Structure formats: structure tokens, C-alpha cells
Amino acid sequence: MTRSYDYEGFTLEISVESDFSIGLKKPEPAKPGYVAVVRIIQATNTVAVFSPLRFGEVCGRPFATEADALMGGFSAARKIVDDLFCHDRH
């Protein structure tokens, strides 16, 4: 799932991926989770401002649903734009 949003002169591209974490093997089956992959692109430039950023929930856990990952990624991308590029507008 991928969505694009226009925000403050930037395009926020949010995609959702299944989280297939590699790590310690646990005896119980792992619950599927999702991560948000965020790209922030200036409207006047075709190159992303940052490399793609991956977001999960608190403490690095994956989101429980695709919708949660999409909204979490969108919120994180807006906060990055606000904090780094729009500080003089507020």
C-alpha cells in the first residue's frame, strides 16, 4: 500500500510493508506487523530530501495494522517537515 500527500510544499510518500524482523527465534508464532516507509520530496525537486525512513511504533515494535502504519508514517513525515522546514512559519 502506498499513498502520496501534499504538505507545505512537499510530497510525502508513505508506503506500508510487512515487518519480517530477523532476530531471536521465539517458540510462539510471531504476530504479523507493519512498518511505514516514508519519503519526503520537495515539490520543486524530483530527488527525495532524505533517504527513505522506516517507522514502527514505540520501542521499535511494528504497527499492528496497515492503517496504523500508514497514519503513523504520515504523522511522522508531517512532524519532520514542520520541525525542519517550517519553523519560521509558526
**Overall 3D form:** elongated
* Rg on CA atoms, Å: 15 Å
Count the helices. How many?
1
The secondary-structure element order is: EEEEH
Observed structural traits:
90 residues, alpha+beta, 1 helix, 4 strands
Commentary on this structure:
By secondary structure, the protein is an alpha+beta fold. 22% of the residues lie in helices and 30% in strands. It has 1 helix and 4 strands. Strands 1-2-3-4 form a 4-stranded antiparallel sheet, covered by helices on one side. The longest helix has 20 residues. The protein starts with a strand and ends in a 5-residue tail after the last helix.
In short:
The chain is an alpha+beta fold and 90 residues long. Helix content is 22%, strand content 30%.
Secondary-structure blueprint:
Blueprint: E1 2-7, E2 10-18, E3 34-42, E4 53-55, H1 66-85
